[in-house]
Structures are given as C-alpha cells and as structure tokens.
Design brief:
With about 325 residues, the protein is an all-alpha fold. It is built from eleven helices and no strands. The longest helix has about 35 residues. It is globular and about 65 Å long.
C-alpha cells in the first residue's frame, strides 16, 4: 500500500500540470496521444538513467568520474558533459520520433508539437519521481516543487521543433544546446546549498532563474499559439530601458526568493504533526515568515503590473 501511494505522488502532480497546459491549448491533441507521449517520456527517463550508468562506468575507466560530485567545478563539468546532453537528448528523441510519424498522417500544429514536448518532459519527471521516492533520496515536497522543471528545460527545443514542423526553420540544435546549458545551471545552483559562503549565495539565484525559465516557457507558448508576446521593456530611451530591465531583474529576485523561502518554510514544518503546527511559537513563526515573503512576492507582482501597463500605454 505504501508503494502504491508513492506511485500516486510520483504521477499525479505531473499529470495535473499536463492537464492544465492541455486545457490552455485552444485545439489540444487527442488525450490518447498525449498520454502516449507522457508514457514515452517516462520510458525516455529510464533510457537516460541507463545511458548515464553506462557513461559513468566507461568514464571511470579513464578518470575517477564519481569524484566529480565532490567539488562545484566537477559538478558543473558533469552536468554539462553527461547529465544535460543525455537527458535532453532522450527527451528530444521521444518527441521527434512520434511527431515525425504523425506528421506523415496529419499536419501537426505548432501547439501540438509544443504540448507533446511538455507531455514527454512531465513523463520524464514522473519517472524521476518514482526513482527518487522509492530510493528515499528526495522528499515528496521536493518532487512536487520540482514538477515543472523538466518542462522548463525542454521548452526552447520544443518551440524550435514546432517551428521546424510548421515553418521549416532549423534552429533545433541551438535550442537543444540552450536547454542543456539551462539544465546544467539549475542542477549546479541546486547543489550550492551544501557549500559555505561565498558559494552559498549562488543558491539564492536558483528560484529567480527558475522563475525566468517559467516566464520564457509562457512566452514561447504564446508564440506557438500565434499570440503577441507579453512585453515588459517598452522604454523609448536607453536609460529608461535599462531602468525597466533592472526592475525585471529585481522582480525576479524578489519573487524567486519569496518562493524559495516558502519552500524552505514548508521543509522545516513538514516533519511536524498537525497539532504541533498550532503551538503558539510555531504558529507565530509560520505566520510571520509567510507574511514577510508574501509581501516580497506582492512587490514583485506590482512591478510586473507596472511594467505591463507601461508597455500597453506605449503600444496602444
């Protein structure tokens, strides 16, 4: 029974996120095809895991490859040489193969190819969730928070693939390389929490970077739907554009680290029972920390609204 609930925790968050994006698409593909791509994403995850084991076995014949995980430069090198290329490559193949097959029978819309990419990425996430949860190397909360990450990684090459099918624009390799680099950056930043200052400060760049990647995926989704991208930098002069760019970065830092702080708060409170959460000192700590970070998130949102309205006044 415990294993069954672990499987549910591994599958339900990715499936819910997939349902959300499928609902947002104006003309979504058939549910059967979307679930097939989700399953292929899970299979690609197991293939990637096998390839990583083979790669590390061969690499250990040449150098002490496992020693790479003990230093930040080693982690970065491993991510950019092994993890990023293998995982993004396996996901890419899992989208290209069925898309080429279906393209022979139907004319695939850009939105269809993009949602296929999201489905494969979330299937890959479900496979990772199973591996982490069954090996007890990550908490359920960690895996829920990380649900959209693989979709954020794959969005650039998913967009490039959609444009390739619809407009014959061949930017796929550069977009895939972009995904590999972003994949490596996120994994490196997520590992800096184990180090002391000044490397520890890099950890505070993780959630702002993820927030930017989420914004980028939303922009790419608007493009494949034929909608105008949301513009935040609308100043007429270079000075005003620099000011607005600084505001965007400030909003990302505030909003990203507000999410990060709430994530850390949830981690601290997760071992407690429901009764312990209502102890006066714990309740006060929870309410104050939540309120402070809610204020930071609200400021970030107000900056976004200000920039958005400034752009609307500029163009309309």
């Amino acid at each position: 029974m415990a294993d069954f609930f672990l499987i549910l925790w591994a599958l339900i968050p990715p499936l819910l996120l997939l349902a959300y994006y499928n609902y947002r698409i104006y003309t979504p593909p058939p549910l059967s095809k979307l679930l097939l791509l989700f399953i292929l994403g899970g299979i690609s995850g197991f293939v990637a895991l096998g390839l990583e084991i083979v790669f590390e076995t061969i690499a250990n014949w040449v150098i002490n490859w496992r020693q790479m995980n003990y230093s930040l430069p080693g982690i970065a090198f491993r991510q950019i040489v092994e993890i990023g290329p293998i995982e993004e490559g396996c996901k890419l193949v899992a989208v290209i193969a069925p898309s080429h097959y279906l393209q022979r029978r139907y004319r695939l819309r850009p939105t269809t190819v993009f949602i296929f990419t999201i489905a494969v990425a979330l299937g890959f996430t479900a496979q990772e969730n199973c591996v982490y949860l069954f090996n007890n190397t990550a908490s359920i909360l960690n895996r829920i928070i990380g649900t959209p990450v693989h979709a954020l990684f794959s969005a650039p090459w998913g967009y490039a693939l959609a444009m390739h099918f619809s407009h014959n624009r061949n930017l796929l390799f550069l977009a895939w390389l972009n995904s590999v680099v972003c994949h490596a950056i996120v994994n490196v930043l997520s590992n800096t929490g184990r180090y002391s200052w000044p490397l520890l400060i890099l950890n505070y760049g993780l959630f702002p970077f993820l927030l930017w990647m989420f914004w980028r995926m939303e922009q790419l989704l608007r493009r494949v739907e034929g909608k105008r991208p949301i513009n935040l930098i609308s100043g007429r002069t270079s000075q005003l554009r620099y000011w607005q760019t600084g505001l965007v970065i400030f909003a990302l830092m505030l909003g990203g680290n507000a999410i990060f702080a709430l994530f850390l708060l949830a981690q601290k409170l997760s071992p407690l029972s429901w009764a312990q959460l209502f102890y006066p000192d714990i309740l006060w700590y929870t309410v104050t920390r939540f309120a402070i970070n809610l204020i930071f998130a609200t400021i970030a949102w107000l900056i976004f609204i200000y920039l958005r309205r400034s752009a609307q006044r500029r163009y309309f």
